[in-house]
Amino acid sequence: MKTLFIGTAIAMTAVTSAAAQELSYGRLIADFEMLSTPGGDVNASILGAEAGVRVQDFDFWINGTQVTISPDGVPVNLTADVSTIGAGYTFSGNYRVDVSSSNLGFGIGGTGLSIGLDEIGVAYDNGTFFGRLSFADINQPVPGVDGLLGLHVGYQFNDYADVSMSVHALDETSGTVDPLIILGGEYDTGQWGVKAEYASISLGGTDLSLISLAGNYQINDQWGVRGAYSTADIAGTDADLIRLGGTYNVNDKYTLYAGLSRVDLGGFEVDGFNIGMTMDFGDKPASYETTADRLLGVIETAGAFDY
């Protein structure tokens, strides 16, 4: 299974070596969670890295995210990771074609499952409206499943507000999985911002849905506060998550943060505390987002890690 530690090293090398080129965007994140459950304490870590480099009309990127969960008293860790490497070419000003290869891995101790996605996408982006069509071949064969189709569209009203929608459908013979629909909207003035997201899918007749609302306020150049609320309906069972925290901007790229969280899963409560840091080197255009990016975004929304 690929791990983020390899991806992080490669991405950081790419960021450094790209200084002479044009670094389009990049991000590093390290987050540590301490969770308290009725059954015992759990530690969790999230590591992520991304770098995109542009050379004339070509762009190249690599990213990776790894989550490690370590319950007390359990001799093995639970891990999940996503890594992607890709390249794109922009032509006629607003059109772009890209190819990428992603790996989604899940592991318990030394045993794991790995699923690969080899994707091709075609996009149009004029700065106000964008649309992207994609097809991802699932290169770990699943009976009755041939691939994953995607359509992602968005509109930017001004420098502060934008909305987007993506639909992802399995190319399958059984027809037991309905398309995954992701809706999102954001308003951000720089001093304060709000973000809302919705996702839904049906698996074999079981409906799953997620709604999330997040906000942030910058008190001054250094200090800020933020919070998020997510609620999910999992086959009729409600799950709610609340996060509240503060941030400290070391400069315009480096941010430290800490926060508290509470999860209520049908009466089963989990309290948590997290600390972390991020480094941002510019935003990745929404029209560049792959299917793996969109799927990972839903997980980040569910855990309120993207607020």
UniProtKB/TrEMBL annotation:
This is Uncharacterized protein. It comes from the Bacteria. Gene3D superfamilies: Porin. SUPFAM superfamilies: Porins. It comes from Octadecabacter temperatus. The lineage of its organism: Bacteria, Pseudomonadati, Pseudomonadota, Alphaproteobacteria, Rhodobacterales. GO terms for cellular component: membrane. One of its GO terms (molecular function) is porin activity.
